[in-house]
């Protein structure tokens, strides 16, 4: 069944509002409605870490294979 969405401010009291907002946008089950990586990097909470001129973007999708050999 469906669960009622909880208010993260009730669970994470004391955290900055922008941190709760980013968490709320990141934990959306529907990937079409979830915040993208690019949007998350530009979110107010990440502003101290985000440098637009230093954000590489892959030209094509890639997979990380946890079972790859590391010779």
Note down, in words, how this protein is organized:
The chain has 71 residues and is mainly alpha-helical. It is 27% helix and 0% strand. The chain contains 3 helices and no strands. The chain has helices at residues 8-11, 17-26, 37-41. It is extended, with a radius of gyration of 16 Å. The N and C termini lie far apart (47 Å).
Brief account:
The mean pLDDT is 87. The termini are far apart.
List the main descriptive attributes of the protein structure presented here.
single chain, mainly alpha
Poorly predicted spans: none
Mean pLDDT: 87
Rg, alpha carbons: 16 Å
Assign a percent range to the helix content: 25-40%
The major sheet is characterized as:
none
Structural class of the helices, strands and pairings? mainly alpha
């Amino acid at each position: 069944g469906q669960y009622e969405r909880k208010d993260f401010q009730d669970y994470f009291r004391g955290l900055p509002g922008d941190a709760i907002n980013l968490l709320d946008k990141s934990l959306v089950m529907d990937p079409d409605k979830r915040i993208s990586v690019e949007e998350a990097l530009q979110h107010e909470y990440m502003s101290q870490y985000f440098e637009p001129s230093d954000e590489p973007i892959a030209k094509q999708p890639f997979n990380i294979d946890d079972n790859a050999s590391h010779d």
